[in-house]
Specification:
alpha+beta; Heat Shock Protein 90; two-stranded antiparallel ribbon; 11 helices; rod-shaped
Length: 358
């Protein structure tokens, strides 16, 4: 049987046993069985013991379901706590004597048992009340767990919707910047334009077919960084020193959200290099060691005061910060530094933390 088939069977069994009629029947069966074991006094008395347990269980069930389907929804859930307890006590005071009378007549010929029943009426009342109030506790706990599950499901749906929205903003933003670069080269009739088209095609394939996944292999993200930097290297030529180094553990061992580093690269070129009159640089380092990823990018600083937007963060940086927060929670550290002549980004991620923050 396939894994999906096994999961379907498990879900079917789970759904079956958690149908109200099924699990209520199981609980009452267990209760009656326990009461039979406790009150068993030999094979000669089995018939009377069984009938007594059924009588007791019948009255108790009536009291429990009166509590569950009338007192709780119409009084307790409306915060009429005093009225609820008064009605519950009153119902128990009526039910208990009726039960005791039925048991008394059923035990005809068992004078000792009848006497014991009369002498322990108060204990019987307390037992009936305790079981009934216990059903209230179970009901409240069940409702609380249900609401918590609904709340978690809603939060997860909202989280996934927000992540999808953020990724949908990242993709057009990246495409817009890259097409601007291609447009500039086509105006110059540069021979590098075809190579940019090929590189862009590879990146678009990655964005279309991989970025819809929650996680991709880190080596694919590394390759997308290489493609992006190669595009920019073709565009800037000798004007910029562009370097990338990957070190540490094998990238294919780890998973990471797709297109996570692109906004940092975009900002390094757009706001730190594109308007520089002199030669500039972009240095990128990515290292993975013992399940931790360290990403560092340093770039020369543009002389254009408008590019101060980089440090404040545009749409790209705002999105990537939000994605990191949603996916990793407290399992990442991001530092943006604005120095006199350069900008730098330092990002540290606990890669395994994504398994606990889906």
């Amino acid at each position: 049987m396939s894994i999906s088939g096994t999961k379907d069977w498990i879900r079917y069994i789970y759904d079956f046993f958690f149908r109200r009629a099924v699990y209520h029947s199981i609980l009452w069966f267990i209760y009656i069985s326990v009461m039979l074991i406790i009150n068993y006094s030999g094979p000669d008395n089995l018939r009377i013991t069984f009938s007594n347990v059924l009588i007791h269980s019948g009255f108790l069930a009536g009291l429990v379901y009166l509590n569950l389907y009338y007192f709780i929804p119409y009084y307790l859930s409306k915060k009429q706590i005093f009225s609820y307890f008064v009605l519950l006590v009153f119902a128990t005071l009526i039910t208990t004597p009726l039960e005791l009378i039925s048991l008394f007549w059923n035990m005809s010929g068992y004078n000792e048992a009848r006497l014991y029943l009369i002498e322990n009426q108060s204990m019987h009342f307390l037992f009936m009340f305790f079981i009934t109030i216990s059903s209230t506790v179970v009901k409240i706990a069940k409702e609380w767990l249900l609401q918590e599950r609904i709340k978690r499901d809603l939060e997860n749906r909202n989280l996934q919707s927000e992540l999808s929205f953020l990724k949908s903003q990242i993709n057009p933003h990246f495409l817009f910047n890259t097409l601007n670069s291609l447009y500039a080269l086509t105006l110059k009739k540069s021979d590098k334009a075809p190579e940019i088209v090929l590189r862009l095609s590879d990146m678009m394939r990655y964005m279309l077919y991989e970025s819809n996944e929650k996680k991709v292999s880190l080596d694919k993200e590394v390759e997308s960084i290489r493609n992006y930097l190669e595009l920019e290297r073709i565009r800037y030529g000798d004007k910029a020193e562009i370097a990338f180094e990957y070190s540490g553990e094998a990238a294919e061992k780890y998973k990471i959200p797709p297109l996570l580093f692109i906004p940092f690269l975009e900002n390094a070129f757009k706001h730190g290099l594109s308007n520089s009159l002199s030669e500039g640089y972009v240095h990128v380092n990515l290292m993975v060691a013992e399940g931790e990823l360290q990403f560092d990018i340093v770039n020369s600083k543009s002389d254009d005061p408008k590019d101060e937007r980089y440090y404040r963060g545009g749409i790209g940086l705002s999105n990537v910060k939000r994605r990191l927060e949603l996916i990793y929670g407290n399992h990442y550290y991001l530092k943006l530094k604005d120095s006199f002549d350069k900008y730098s980004v330092s990002l540290n991620i606990e890669l395994n933390a994504i398994e606990n923050n889906k």
